[in-house]
Amino acid sequence: MVSSRINVNCIVPGYIGGVKYSGKESGKISEVIDYIPMGCLGEVADIVETAYFLISDSSKYLTGQMLEVAGGIN
């Protein structure tokens, strides 16, 4: 991959507002927010901006990374 200059990275989203969650998370969103160090749900724009960063020249030397966009949850 190095000779082809292909970067391989991964975005790991946390809890994002406006996304419908099923199961135990759906009724306990306030508890989930309390668990997030930044104290709020992420926004779809947070994921989009991270993807834009990864396709831009700003990340040309970044490869093999998992970027957690999760408000501090890891």
Please compute the radius of gyration using only Cα atoms: 15 Å
Share in helix? 25-40%
Q: Please indicate the count of domains.
A: 1
In N-to-C order, the SSE pattern is EHHE
Mean pLDDT: 88
Largest sheet: 2 strands, parallel
Binned strand content: 5-15%
Number of helices: 2
Structural class: alpha+beta
Give the number of DSSP strands.
Answer: 2
What order do the strands of the largest sheet run in, or round the barrel if closed? 1-2
Q: What sort of overall outline do the alpha carbons produce when their principal axes are compared? A: elongated
Which regions contain 5 or more consecutive residues with pLDDT less than 50?
none
Measure the end-to-end span: 28 Å
